[in-house]
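For the sake of transparency, this paper describes our internal protein records without simplification. The remainder of this section carries one protein's record, kept here as part of the documentation:
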Amino acid sequence: MNYPDKFKLTREQSLFLAKKKWDENIYCGMKMENRNVTFPETQTILQGVNVGHVALDDIQAILNMRDAWRYLLDTLDETLDMAAVCALNGLVSRNESLAWGVLRTGKVGISGTTYVPPIPDAEKAQCELAALARNGGKSPTEKALDIFLWGTRAQLFWDGNKRTSLLAANKMLVQAGSGVLTITDSFLQDFNRLLTRYYDSGDGGDLKQFLYDKAIDGIEF
């Protein structure tokens, strides 16, 4: 096994970790989308206090991620299928996108790359996700990384694909007690470089190894 679980947490420990890390994870989701907001500002907004100089659409995006994380934690015992992924996107992209919570029906481009993802097919997407989630030869950590890579490159939705994929991967990790996936500021430049390479080539090996090495966090005992 190339990517064994780094953590083996109980359900109680896993939920504690997820709740402890969700503000940082939400902030990292904002930075992945180049949102101009700081971590303290994110924490303040999550506490229900508006920050006057933060743009309203950034506040909306933070609150959307908050609601998506709440949904994730409330549905931990439910299967990670396309209905769940669409529900996550419906919260992440609410009032931000052309449509949210449904697969896109037109072409999109990705900044910084010539790769044009195909228009998704619902049945194919469900089969691909199911295959990634049930692969018995891989650890939950590796499955989660595969799901993240698949979702980011497939660009299933009009907007919020990286954030939705991050949430879907974390649902898999928290369910299994395998930690959380969080791409922090210090690694964001390397992440973006490897993600662009992955878009162009379709080979996610370097990005997957990077995420395993740098972005899986947990509780050390």
User: Anything to note?
Assistant: The beta strands are 180-181, 216-217. The first strand starts at residue 180 and ends at 181. The CA atoms of residues 36 and 55 lie 8 Å apart.
